[in-house]
Amino acid sequence: MSCSENKEKKIQDTPPNVILIFTDDQGYQDLGTFGAPDIATPHLDNMALNGVKLTSFYVAQAVCSASRAGILTGCYPNRVGIHNAYMPNAKTGLNTKETTIAKMLKSIGYRTAMYGKWHLGDDKKFMPNNHGFDDYFGIPYSNDMWPLHPQQGSVFNFGPLPLYENEKILDTLTDQSDLTTQITERSVAFIESNKEQPFFLYVAHPQPHVPLFVSDKFKGKSERGHYGDVIMEIDWSVGQILATLKKNGLEDNTVVIFTSDNGPWLAYGNHAGSALPFSEGKGTAWEGGQREPFIIKYPKKLTPGRTLDTPVMAIDILPTIAEITGAPLPKLPIDGKSVWPILIGESTESPQEAYFFYYRVNELHGVRYGKWKMYFPHTYRTMEGQTLGKDGIPGEYKMINLEEIALYNVLNDKSETHNVAKEYPEVVEKIRILANNMRQKLGDSLLELEGTENREVGRVD
């Protein structure tokens, strides 16, 4: 075999790099390619043109910590005992027995790094370096958990917000204007220093979670005000990462994924994103709370420029990456399944019969089944009819009781306005059966089921 043939074979055999970019509280409509009329996102729009766009991608739960647990472990968050958003000095966190994407890829020789917001437990034993990440730079929980919170003193009593480098606190933040830039610079440096070996990079931007911060280079640039400026800087960050891959000849053999952790925090009004055409937002199981923009680019394997509407959930990302890279799946049971056949065009059917939408500690609120989305009676929050917040000060939610089962055809009724449960009793019954099967595995505190296989106690640390 000639030298050139050897080189070509080495390129073909090299496992792909993996980059997961995960924003915070970003709405479905906050990118040009997903319909934003007033925010310029040229790099992400171009990524979609040269990659694959999913229009029915769901996060694992519509809240910070639970959502992050779902995408990193391939599990429904309640399976691993994580719900809601951890507060500072939490006594629990993601059990180190769990296999994260980082730990999975590290086991086959990948270098790994995480830059940005962690939010899976801030005690040392739960931090990123103990979950498979070789390098870490960022904040341990949400960027509003600091003394400058607008409700500090009346509702909260937060201490200083620490900025970590691995296990060392570098600083306590009083201004976050340069944090997106710092995370981007770290990401670029990591790619440059690891270009000769496979790597996994998890970029978890703290923005556009309130309080909104943007560097001087993007202030006043967007037609959607301060929020739009923040999204434009995130788009710039993605552009820097993609340019670094191209510069180093890594573009074709790198899987790049962009999505967010949950829908917009609607109480913050002009400092919140848009989930249109979907209803509600963060903290609810309605479409606006859990359906997120999703783009994946992998030139070596994925035909570019395709838009797919097959339902996929964040729990499917870990097993999909396992299939792409040849990494072994976790030893503990997971809920996700590989959607690689969908991404490469071999199938239009989800490997999951249904997706289940839990919230709070362990309440099953809804189920996505084919074109159908069904909700069980539950209480949820809304800003409908309420005064929205403004300029970083939140409005006040009101609580609504959904008193009967609601069924929507979310292909035709994206805003979930026409309840057809009474017209399709056979669909309602089928989803009830699927829900009851899942309840036997993960429970449902709304029903206080006994005899379930819920592993929450065994898997949370």
Automatic annotation (TrEMBL):
Database matches in Gene3D superfamilies: 3.30.1120.10, Alkaline Phosphatase, subunit A
Family: Belongs to the sulfatase family.
Protein name: Arylsulfatase
An annotated Gene Ontology molecular function: arylsulfatase activity
Domain Sulfatase N-terminal: 16-326
Domain of life (superkingdom): Bacteria
UniProt keyword Hydrolase, yes or no: yes
Lineage, top ranks: Bacteria, Pseudomonadati, Bacteroidota, Flavobacteriia, Flavobacteriales
Entry keyword set: Hydrolase
Keyword Hydrolase: yes
Annotated organism of origin: Arenibacter certesii
